[in-house]
Structure formats: structure tokens, C-alpha cells
Amino acid sequence: MEFLRVYIEEKIEINDEEWHKLSSLFVKKVYAKGTEIFTAGEIHENIYYVSDGILRMYMIDTEGKELTWALNYHQEDEVLDPFSADYVSFLTQKESDIFCEALCDCVVYVVKFEDLDRLYESGLKWMKLGKIISDSQIVTLIERTKMMSRLTAKEKYLLMQNVAPMYERVLPDYQFATVLGITPQSLSRIKREMKG
To answer: How much is the pTM?
Structure first.
């Protein structure tokens, strides 16, 4: 939980009492590699903070093919978007179309959306924190959408190697290709070109 406190303190100042108020909302869970943490068809009620490990969020298209949406991870010194959740499902109270699995043994802290909402409503400081976190999620979504629409396949590949090399390291090529929005054959061709 120390990393979570550092993450929060980068956004707002909190004292020990406020940290206790926030941290007491989280429940520690340990998931074995391969565990489905949440599945499509549920209305999401929780946010999952990855303290140690890698979670993969994915959808299944109409042909039954898995489309990797994102990795949420905190492993050794590498961290990228350590919060995993389907915010849309929670906000709309509609069934999610997203699955989430543990790609390795994971330590995850789980908090209920409604508990966070109550915390946000309890004071301006907490409301500011909620806005900062929500804003960062929106920025991530917009940046990803822009990337997918304006970059070439090779540019996407190079960007992911630079910004989030974990994706290529832990995902098989067919899953990594879905992150880039390309076919596995295109990914193989790009890799051959990069080596040649």
C-alpha cells in the first residue's frame, strides 16, 4: 500500500489520519495466475489497485476472438495505470463487456465504487482526488483513441515499445496485435522489418 500512498500524495496532500481513512476502504486480495478477476455480464462495483502483478483487460468480439484492451500493472519498478475497472459499467449500471485476468500471481487491493463516492462527497480534498483520477482515465482513453486512428501500424508498435514495453514482453503476439489494432501477420512483418 506504500506505493498507493505515494500515488495519492502526488495528487493531493494527506496526513496519516486521512491516509487511514482512505486505506481502510481497500481490501487486500491475492489472485493466482490465470484467475478471472471480473467477467463480462456483470455490473461492476469495484476498482482494483494492482500492488504487485499484471492484469489484462480484454473483450471478446462477435467472432469469439479476444481483443486485449489494456494491461494494468505494478511489477518491480514498472508501473502503468495500476487501477483496473470498467468505469462505464459502474457509471451506467449496465452489464460490462470486459473481462480481467491475472497474468501472474497478483496482489490487488479492492475498493467499492460506492465507498469511494462517499469519500469524495465527504470533503473538497477527496472530491479533487476523484476528479484528478477520473481526468487521467479520460486522457488515457482519448490518447489511445487518437493513437489508434492516426498512427501507422509500425508507429504504434514503436510507441508501445517505448511507452509500455511490458505489453510485448508478457502478451503472445496474437494478443499484442489486438492492442495495436493490427493482424498478427502485420505484427510479424513489422518485427521482421525491424530486425532486417
So the answer is: 0.88
